[in-house]
Design a protein that fits this description.
The protein has 289 residues and is of the alpha/beta class. α3 packs across α4.
Length: 289
């Protein structure tokens, strides 16, 4: 009978590290990608993780499932390209440094703050790679890429230039969420929406044929930015208003003093008067309409 490879009978961190080291020593270049291989190529293009802190168990679990795909495709005889990458762009690392230092970005000298961001993201990048190896991900760690590297930026910029030349990039205006304190736009995923009590205001509007309409709103300060008034298409109270123009109830300059009344199924007939004013991106519903 052959002897067991592991003689220790109790688990310890040192034993785990020893097993992992032996594993990576034994496999050699088994996880490396050979572009000249005659095998069918299978590429796994994952969104690279963002190193704004320690890698939590949810992210590890997600990448473990991706790793299952990589390993299964190798067992099927394919040449798998599964690179290890790190997304090092964005404002999350700025928030991390601010929290760590207890100061806002604008209170730093720009060069000093960038250096702190660089030091912090390097530390987190190393920790994340260590965690990925420790859980046994079969990535090609020798082909590690960073989205803030000059090589990666050259590739992405060349792609955008090519798309622009083909006419597939369109310049347009769109609403965005802006943080006046941080002085930057932020992603929807970074917004924490809260529910709170407020007051409903009934505001009297007048149509072009002098018909008085009450619009109930929690944002009367947005009236000057109103672009359209909407009612539910099945609300019998207001079917005769659809298509008419209605005057803004306050004096405004440098814009039309009336807006059109349209029908939209998103209107809640039982909320307030059942008439909704849609303003310049006062909330997500305004954007969707």
């Amino acid at each position: 009978m052959s002897s067991p490879k592991i003689s220790e009978k109790r688990w310890s961190i040192d034993l785990e590290k020893k097993i992992q080291q032996n594993h990576y020593d034994d496999i050699g270049n088994a996880y490396s990608f050979n572009p000249q291989s005659s095998k069918e190529i299978f590429i796994i293009d994952t969104p690279p993780p963002y190193p704004s802190g320690t890698w939590h168990i949810g992210a590890v679990a997600q990448y473990s499932m991706i790793d299952v795909i990589a390993r299964s495709q190798r067992l099927l005889g394919k040449e798998v390209f599964f690179p290890w990458g790190v997304d090092r762009n964005g404002i999350n690392i700025e928030f991390t440094v601010e929290k760590k230092m207890g100061r806002k970005m604008r209170t730093f000298d720009r060069s000093n703050f960038l250096e702190l961001c660089k030091e912090t993201i390097e530390e987190y990048t190393r920790e994340m790679k260590h965690t990925a190896k420790r859980v046994g991900l079969s990535c090609d760690f020798d082909k590690e890429y960073h989205t803030d590297s000059s090589e990666f930026r050259s590739v992405t910029q060349s792609i955008f230039v090519d798309l622009f030349k083909k006419g597939e990039i369109v310049e347009d205006l769109r609403p965005n969420i802006y943080d006046p304190i941080e002085g930057t736009t932020i992603a929807d995923a970074e917004v924490q929406r809260i529910t709170r009590e407020t007051k409903l205001c009934d505001v009297k509007w007048t149509t072009e044929d002098n018909q008085e309409i009450i619009i109930t709103t929690t944002r009367p300060e947005m009236i000057c930015a109103c672009g359209v008034v909407v009612v539910h298409p099945e609300d019998s109270r207001y079917k005769d208003l659809i298509g008419k123009n209605i005057s803004l109830p306050i004096e405004v300059n440098d814009r039309h003093k009336t807006v059109q009344i349209l029908a939209h199924p998103s209107v809640k007939m039982d909320f307030g008067s059942g008439v909704l004013m849609v303003c310049s991106f006062g909330d997500q519903n305004d954007v969707s309409i």
